[in-house]
Design goal:
Length: 380
């Protein structure tokens, strides 16, 4: 009886302690679990393939306009000519400067003479200035603003049509529908190479990290390696040996399979989809997590209005399932096709990353405002 009483007392004390911690600031804020799998709609927004390089510099329309403007006041040139014939009796020192002056000075002469002469001649000069605001009146803005069917949909300040040279995304991390920490995605590309670094920092437990590197060109991403770390220790690695035609993977790269064209690692695949506008064909793709290798097609399954908690984003959902595993990417066409949500699941676990901040090329494009949690504090 004494042991049972002691056990009951210990359980009661433990319960009281946990309740006290939940009411204090010692435990991290826990957001509401992610919603269940949404009902996908028919895809009504077409993803576009992204541009890799900066577009060629366009000609400066202002400089072109300046070169054409002198031609307008040059129209009065025939007028002074008859005037010179009529006033031939005037001194030569008055006529000669006008005849010997360059064309630009002649064009400028009527402007200078007409300005003090009267207020009427300057009218043609302000006319183009008044026409410029008239060509872009305020009436053009209402169509560009959110129409009724786009009410509540989040868009970036300017369209993002170029594939990012750099991108950083902050995520909330979930394990089996419970928020367990945060994740960070760091994408960098330059000089034909890319580096994708994803880290997951749980409140409790070791840090997880995934590092993927490779080359990038017109054909898209061509991965060279992927490494998986747990608590700073290398756990699994995958190496794409193109010369030998082998995909080496496992804890010590001790496993190998024939390397197939278009092979990707599980995380670079999201950026390959983003770059290609989701069009990777219908053939199965060889995909590795550094621990396993799968083959399945990656095609869009539907569209969905992703509720961020402070507005919605239109996303295209890509799903793939095979050998008991499940992979899903939510790509946002308005935000350079970047992955707003990444889901990896199998029979034992479900890991989910949901974006709360997006930066593209060093500029913050969107951030989730403070959201209520159990302790009514911002979870990020």
């Amino acid at each position: 009886m004494t042991r049972r009483r002691l056990l009951l007392i210990a359980l009661v004390l433990s319960l009281l302690l946990h309740l006290a911690l939940l009411g204090s600031d010692l435990l991290p804020a826990i957001s509401a679990p992610p919603a269940e799998a949404p009902k996908l709609e028919k895809i009504d927004v077409k993803m576009q393939a992204m541009r890799m390089d900066d577009p060629p510099p366009a000609r400066d329309p202002q400089s072109a306009g300046v070169s054409l403007r002198p031609a307008e006041p040059a129209k009065p040139k025939p007028k002074p000519k008859p005037a010179r014939k009529r006033e031939a009796s005037r001194p030569a020192d008055v006529a000669k400067p006008q005849a010997s002056a360059p064309a630009q000075r002649i064009a400028a002469a009527p402007q200078a003479s007409s300005a003090p002469a009267a207020d009427a001649p300057p009218a043609p000069v302000p006319q183009p200035e008044a026409a410029q605001p008239a060509s872009a009146p305020a009436t053009e803005k209402p169509p560009r603003e959110a129409p009724p069917d786009l009410a509540g949909i989040i868009h970036p300040d300017t369209p993002l049509r170029q594939f990012p040279a750099s991108a950083k995304i902050r995520y909330q991390g979930y394990w089996n529908s419970a928020m367990v920490g945060f994740g960070d995605l760091d994408w960098q590309r330059g000089q034909g190479h890319y580096r994708l670094d994803i880290s997951v920092n749980p409140f409790i437990g070791p840090k997880l990290r995934y590092l993927a590197q490779g080359t990038i060109g017109k054909s898209g991403l061509r991965p060279d390696s992927m490494q998986s770390f747990r608590g700073g220790d290398l756990k699994e690695a995958a190496r794409f040996d193109y010369e030998a035609g082998l995909l080496r993977y496992g804890s010590n790269e001790d496993k190998q399979l024939p390397l197939k064209p278009g092979a990707q690692d599980a995380f670079s695949l999201a950026f390959q989809l983003a770059l290609k506008g989701g069009d990777l064909g219908h053939a199965p793709i060889q995909i590795t997590t550094a621990k396993k290798v799968y083959e399945y097609p990656m095609a869009p399954n539907g569209a969905f209005d992703y509720d961020t908690g402070a507005g919605k984003m239109r996303v295209i959902v890509f799903r793939a399932q095979g050998d008991g595993d499940f992979t899903e990417f939510w790509l946002a066409p308005d935000f350079a096709n970047l992955p707003l949500r990444i889901l990896r699941a199998d029979k034992d676990k479900r890991i989910e990353l949901k974006a709360i901040r997006i930066e593209v090329n060093g500029k913050r494009q969107w951030e989730l405002p403070p959201q209520p949690t159990i302790r009514n504090k911002n979870a990020h």
